[in-house]
Amino acid sequence: MKQRPQIAAYYFPNYHEDARNALVHGRGWSEWRLLPAATPRWPGHHQPNLPAGGFTDEADPATMARKIEAAADHGVDAFIFDWYWYNDGPFLQRGLDEGYLGATNRERVKFALMWANHDWTDIHPQKLGETPRLLYPGSVTRETFDRIVDHAITHYFSSPSYWLIDRRPYFSIYDLRSLVDGLGGVEPAIAALRHFRERTRAAGHPDLHLNLVLWQHGILAGEKTMDLTPELITRFGFDSITSYVWVHHFPPATFPTAPYLDTLQSMLGYTRDMATRFPSLPYYPNVTMGWDPSPRTVQSDTYENRGYPFMGTYADNTPDNFRHALQSMRSWLEGRPATDRILTINAWNEWTEGSYLEPDLVNGTAYLEAIRDTFGPNVT
């Protein structure tokens, strides 16, 4: 019998009060504020998509415990937290530090960090035709990077619930170009990542599992692609490659909607190509539940194809079609070595981008049930 893949869902922690957000949006703000204001922008467009459990506080351990229970019961093995740290310090930490790590059942679903080192801009919401204001630049200095490394090793890697690949803590980097730019070039970045690995070993871990999020098309403001060869990725020291969301590879080809299953076929081809292009590095494929960033736009503006978040969406991302996507990727993974059978999913709770596993008022737990029925129970 084939070994069951591990299922890791990205977790976007902008659904709690945060001091930085309070300065920009006012006290009590979280991204929940955008959802009930969302409206249909074209005929047949369904908005708002609202959570069945209400607008909960993810920094509350009891709330997070319920999320963990639902994830574990439906076959999710790990949350990969979008984790933010800029030159002036951390951002959006309370969902992980207080919510997840305070939950009594946290070991049912492991956790890992994806350092989301992209520019943070004021797009909550974004007005049509305006360049979003840059709030926090994603590129950091070597001094900041070393603080990030020390904090990750000290505060997270030693946790019994940290996600390990072959006994090594998994740490993912979202924007390699941003890292290279901040550190002053390819060679300084390679040296910094080598230092990260050395510090991880010195802390008593067998090694670091360093993962690269690879994408072909920048979506957010400031995102720039980087020409990467297998040799260069190896020099950086990455142990694996994955994707964050389908639109990084195949933005909707038609506006305002593009067929979900057509995008799946494109991603299956991309997944096969990755195994050929990078034969020495495992590629962990991705299934994206959906794509609709229209809640992040000013709702009174016309919805034109003008770039994120005014852009095309995926149509017909029904629970059945999502299940078909999962089954397709499962078939591909069954042909891979057992140690490489990992699937990432976008996302547990990207509500304002239309990609979420959490139950909503229309579909309930149907997307979670698709994971459970395709892969079976959580293996942790």
Structural notes for this entry:
It is a single chain. The protein is α/β, with parallel strands linked by helices. It has 10 helices and 17 strands. It has helices at residues 19-25, 61-73, 94-100, 142-157, 176-183, 186-202, 230-236, 260-277, 319-333, 366-375, and strands spanning 6-11, 78-86, 89-91, 110-115, 120-121, 134-136, 164-165, 168-173, 209-213, 240-242, 257-259, 283-284, 286-288, 313-315, 342-346, 349-350, 355-356. Strands 1, 2, 3, 4, 7, 8, 9, 10, 12, 13 and 15 form an 11-stranded mixed β-sheet that branches. A hairpin with a 2-residue loop joins strand 7 (164-165) and strand 8 (168-173). The chain is globular. The mean pLDDT is 96.
Reconstruct the topology from this structure.
Blueprint: E1 6-11, H1 19-25, H2 61-73, E2 78-86, E3 89-91, H3 94-100, E4 110-115, E5 120-121, E6 134-136, H4 142-157, E7 164-165, E8 168-173, H5 176-183, H6 186-202, E9 209-213, H7 230-236, E10 240-242, E11 257-259, H8 260-277, E12 283-284, E13 286-288, E14 313-315, H9 319-333, E15 342-346, E16 349-350, E17 355-356, H10 366-375
Parallel strand pairs: 1-2, 1-15, 2-4, 4-8, 8-9, 9-10, 10-12, 11-14, 13-15
Antiparallel strand pairs: 2-3, 5-6, 7-8, 16-17
Helix pairs in contact: 2-3, 4-6, 5-6, 8-9, 9-10
